Amino acid sequence: MTTLHVIAHSPSSDDRFDSCLRLLGAKDAVLLCGEAVNGLRPGSETALQLHAAQLQGRLFALQEDLHARAISQDYAKALDYPGFVELSLRYDKVNSWL
Amino acid sequence: MAKSMLIISRQGPWGGPAAREALDIALAGGAFDLELGMLFLDDGVLQLAIDQQPMHLEQKNLSANLQALPMFGVDQLFVSRSSLTRRGLGEQALALAVEVLDDDELSALLERFDHVVTL
Amino acid sequence: MKFAIAVFSPAHAPSSRRALRFAEAVLEGGHDITRLFFYQDGVHSASANIVAPQDEIDVAAQWRAFIQDHRLDAVVCIAAALRRGVLNQEEAQRYQRPAANLPAPWELSGLGQLHEAAQLADRLICFGGD
Fold first, then answer.
1. B5-50+61-118: which CATH architecture?
2. Residue C115 to residue B117, Cβ atoms within 8 A
3. A24, C31, C82, C89: least CB-packed within 10 angstroms?
4. Element (H or E) spanning C77, and its range?
5. What angle do CA B117, C110, B112 make, to 5 degrees?
6. Which residue is closest to B118 within chain A, CA to CA?
7. Which of B82, B103, B114 sits opposite A93 (nearest CB)?
């Protein structure tokens, strides 16, 4: 069973990012929303960490959060809410790192 | 067929109600005979330290709630070895009988359940 | 498909608005919501006493309207609510508190409702944090 992991916390605020990456299955995906999209700022430590984790095709971000923060990146696929709903059905379950 | 749920508890016991509220979800599900698992991860492992005396903080001891887990049929209990080690907790001295898992076993654990709730 | 949506954050948290927008997209996509369940600080998303600043959106009011318009089952966990001072009329009377701030369409109930919703749904999605 595959899992879509959702992170909403800033990567620099605590270890949710680290723990998520530790638990991540080979076919799982990650959706970043809220403050978590700061992890996609090019050149940031977390962006480097995410690149190293080789998440091509399974890293997503909420578009409104990227735009609000003026973050320009092409690693995570940006989604709107209908895309978020569709993504949640593409994976067997959703685990939010509350 | 009934769906199973894994609850991942990540908060320490005395920093707020989250630890207790995660246990409440597990106990409520156990009371309905649902298949539940509980994983203590990150600061959640601090709940398992022995000899805690929360009365000094005028807080309720969670050990009764923890001990109630297997009594309510929640007997799939796990803890992250790396979370324990990072926090200076030994595997042999834990307040609850749990299976200790390495990091590479954690994603396999998640795969076994229909739902996951991480608190 | 059926969704159970759990909200763990108060109305002023971005994640509460995010949960609402997700819930709207679920219905717009032709899916069903088996239940909305409010736990931990999510009980504050149900408070009738929220006064949002004039220059901000009123997420609590939007939740209320969404639930009423679509006749959704919206449950607030009673244990989490009592601890945080979110009470309906009955509980305010029971505990002799001066005010009730949880009107219809919200219902106070136990965690069993979260589990039931998870059993009935294809997906359980939780929103919380930031």
1. 3-Layer(aba) Sandwich (3.40)
2. no
3. C89
4. strand C74-77
5. 25
6. A97
7. B114
